[in-house]
């Protein structure tokens, strides 16, 4: 395990900018508006050869514990449990504030080593705040500009005495023997409209209040990835999962706020990263047009899709609701007819094992490869049962098929006059691939390639 470093500070001092700098990617949302970060975000970082896990936290605010800022502060306090050290970030241009002093008092009561970071210290505008920060009692502050990368070497020197003894031993890489490796952790993204219960569902799976939840819609902003192990009741063995929580996606016309636009864009990127996407519906609202748009986006990106109906414990007439959603999905998502539909309750935990089982099963289909010989036997049988049309009396010739990739499954058909092949016949072949070759309801890509005519006139 890498030693864990937690970034702590009041809102808008540049914590997420520093997190992005140390991780080496702009993953955390950053904006001039304070309070952008609400959940803890973890990332693997390396600074001049020193490796550690860096944790971004919500801005520390002095509010009622039951309020949203108060619950965010509780998440920040929880992040320090088990950490190797804390980076206490202040805004050197703004100087010390009473909230900075309150955070300092709290940190002095903890057993975790603290490095004081005076951010936004580029130029001379931050000198006054830098000198003031000595009064906090954490020794020499590190003058840093997370935005421009200035002072990173000084930060490394301040962190080295604490983290160097905790560095993991170097692992010796094994030689590749050419055998197929088992699949890695399941990358599972939870998406849906605001307030569908995405964060609550992940907290239920983890059996802890890992993500911020509440009655307010749109609490989640950043897409948060959490490593977890689920025990499969079918085998009683742990299986690795990367859970990805995302911001709620409203209709585009309703998204006016810049920060919400950034959060929705981040959620769409999370779909691209995932292997399996769970679209979470609210049983009290049913299936709406926006849900179908979110589902269609996941399918267009080639992700395996599962629909989960949350709040099943309070659903009215559950049987008719389930059947109605099933019928609407088969009509609205005809390209993946039969997509798995699971009823769950994030509050009670009902259906969560079935959801994970469906996710692993559909990933297996998403990764499936069919040997070329067996694929072409099916192809010959499909054409014998339903020969391709002959527009103008000239038959379209389909010679053979091959699978060129998985994740999602991709196939190429070679033949002649393929530009005249009707879309209905292409759908016939795709549906046959899904139904008879074990691909279920995953997206299947089918491309057509005509052989070049060697006697064609060359210009």
From TrEMBL:
A GO MF term: GTP binding
InterPro entries on file: G_ENGA, GTP-bd, GTPase_Der, KH_dom-like, KH_dom-like_a/b, P-loop_NTPase, Small_GTP-bd
Residues the record lists as binding GTP 2: 192-199, 245-249, 310-313
Pfam family, one: KH_dom-like
Signal peptide: none
Keyword Transferase set for record: no
UniProt KW GTP-binding keyword: yes
Assigned protein family: Belongs to the TRAFAC class TrmE-Era-EngA-EngB-Septin-like GTPase superfamily. EngA (Der) GTPase family.
NCBIfam families: GTPase_EngA, small_GTP
Protein purpose: GTPase that plays an essential role in the late steps of ribosome biogenesis.
Name of protein: GTPase Der
Organism: Croceicoccus marinus
Gene: der
